[in-house]
Every structure is written in C-alpha cells, then in structure tokens.
Amino acid sequence: MKVITKIPSAALSPNSRSHWRVKHKASKAVKQATAAGVHIAFLLDGKPDDLPWHEVELQATYYHNCKRRRDPDNLVALLKYPIDGLVLGGLLSDDDMITIKPVSRLIDKDNPRLELMVTRATL
After folding, report:
1. pTM (two decimals)
2. Contact 112, 70 (CB under 8 A)
C-alpha cells in the first residue's frame, strides 16, 4: 500500500536544537498528515480486511524540491513520525515490527513529498 504524506520538518531532525513546543507541533502535523494519507490510500486501494498489520516492510522515498545534500541517517530518523502516523491511521498495530529498507531520494520541484510503500512482511 502506498501512503503519501508531507516531508517532516527540519525541526524534527536529531540535529535540531528547536524548542520542544515547535517539535511537538511539527510531529503532530506529520502524524496527522500520514494518518490522512492512510485513509486516502484506503479509499483508492480498498481497505484490507485483515487490519491492523503486525509485521511490515517499509520503503521510503523522499521527493525534495532541490538537490541539496542530505544525510541519509537523518532521513531514516525522520521516519519515526510518519511511522507513528501509520499506527494512528490504523494501518499498523504497533511500530515495533517494521523492517526499513534503504531510503531513496529524488527531486520533484513542484510537489515535494514523502512516499511510503508499506508491504506485509513475508514469513
């Protein structure tokens, strides 16, 4: 299932020195946007009967608006908030059984976004 959401704010980066209130507001916005993205994906793809999923694989693709260099480790750390949004949206039961594949970075000047491809883990 593909979930499209907004790119988390730089205030949520592990290297950020932002005030806790700024971080809280930014994290809440990303979680709610991701939960809304889950509901849109349910409308487009159909809601699976066996929700919530327990073990999943996650492929994240960041579409940035410029070619500026970004640290891949920080991009992985920023996935914490969209993953919490997947739980909030009802797709996942908990975020403890997620395998995160390497993060992809592409350029889309007109539509920066984060695309999460969530698939059930093969046993």
Report:
1. 0.91
2. no
